[in-house]
Amino acid sequence: MQMTFSSIMKTMLHQFLYNPNVHDCGWITISTHRTPEGAENTKELHKAEAQKDWMEEYPTEDLRVKHPFGHNEDWRIGLTELSD
User: Fold this and answer.
1) Which residue has better confidence, 15 or 10?
2) Do 74 and 19 form a contact (C-beta atoms < 8 A)?
C-alpha cells in the first residue's frame, strides 16, 4: 500500500464539551472548532452565561454558599479526529 500525504495528515478538531450533571449525565458536544482557542473562547462564553444565570437564581451570598457555582457541572475541551 502506497502512503500519500493526505493519508498521513489527520484533521484534528477541538470540541467544547459540557456536562450539566456529572453524576447523572454524559458530556454533550456544544461546538466543534479547528483551533483550541476557538473552543476555549466558546467554553468561556458558555460558562459566563451559566454563572450569570446562577447569580440570578441564587442572589444572596448565603444561597451561593449553599449552592456553589458549577458544583455538579463540567466544562472541558476534547480533541477528536475528523474521519473521511
Assistant:
1) 15
2) yes
